[in-house]
Amino acid sequence: MDLYQKLKHDENIRTYITCADESLRALGYTEHSFAHVTRVAETASSLLTTLGYDAHTVELASVAGYLHDIGNLVNRVDHSQSGAVMAFRILSEYGLQASDIATIVTAIGNHDEGTGVPVSAVSAALILADKSDVRRSRVRNDDFATFDIHDRVNYSVTESALGISEDLSEVRLTLSIDTAISPVMDYFEIFLGRMTMCRKAAEKLGLQFHLTINGQQLF
Fold this sequence. Notes:
The chain contains 9 helices and 4 strands, in the order ααααααααββαββ. By secondary structure, the protein is α+β, with helices and mostly antiparallel strands. 41% of the residues are buried. Helices cover 55% and strands 11% of the residues. Strand 2, helix 9 (184-204) and strand 3 form a beta-alpha-beta unit. The chain starts with a helix and ends with a strand. The mean pLDDT is 96. It has a 4-stranded mixed beta sheet with strand order 1-2-3-4. Helix 3 packs antiparallel against helix 4.
């Protein structure tokens, strides 16, 4: 069993992820539990696989993706930094080499748009995977009348796909949005910082980043 699979079956880690998501639920945030972290892990690894990175680097991206949000257990504020410290302790107990721990911890500590910078291929892949996970199923509020802007934007997304072009020159986030639920402008109001971070992450990987919404390229 590889490291990523071992971590997925570690009951302590599962508890941390569950409790971190429960805190975010109490704060009214969208889903940050296993659906999100698994999707981020698999998307990050897929990006690096497509770009020809070796299997070891791909696995480090999977691990970073799976652990990236555990810092929400401590507090939403600065969760990337607290999550990086938690990941350091967890991975040290698994006996990883210092260089591998450093790669994963650096990626986790740099994934949030408030303070993060895509300083490596793994961190860039994590950023793109995390910020592209916009979908209706992440909304947990079942009362449409009380939706805030984040609920409306996520709920309005009926289709979402992140993919690299065949010539490996660009990465594109393609969204279908129901504008009767949320206008496209609302997406930019809350996600412009994230899309700017995605552009920088793409550049770190030697790609151009593009955003297409309802068939129109907007970024």
